[in-house]
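ARCHIVE CARD
CATEGORY: sequence design from structure
SOURCE FIELD: tokenized fold
FIELD CONTENT:
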């Protein structure tokens, strides 16, 4: 019985570590993503629908950049789940 609980606890800890690593990777991606976005771009936070027929709620918030290109048309680029101004996660802090 104790061995079963030990395995369960190890599995939960492993899931927590993978989840934290995934969140850190997403944050770093969002911070580095706006490098090809002009400085004059406006950053907006939006909720979106996923498009599944049985899903009625909106997901997010997600960050998007908006700016006008050389053709004077509005351009939009997905940044990610985190603000590009977010600070990276420091592994040394608890």
């Amino acid at each position: 019985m104790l061995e079963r609980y030990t395995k369960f606890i190890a599995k939960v800890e492993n899931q927590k570590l993978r989840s934290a690593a995934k969140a850190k990777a997403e944050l770093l991606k969002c911070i580095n993503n706006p490098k090809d976005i002009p400085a004059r771009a406006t950053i907006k936070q939006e909720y979106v629908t996923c498009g599944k027929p049985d899903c009625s709620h909106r997901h997010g918030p997600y960050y998007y950049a908006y700016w006008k290109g050389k053709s004077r048309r509005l351009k939009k680029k997905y940044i990610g789940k985190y603000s590009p101004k977010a600070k990276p996660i420091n592994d040394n802090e608890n």
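CARD ANNOTATION: The first helix runs from residue 2 to 32. Residues 2-80 form one domain.
SHELF: design records, drawer C
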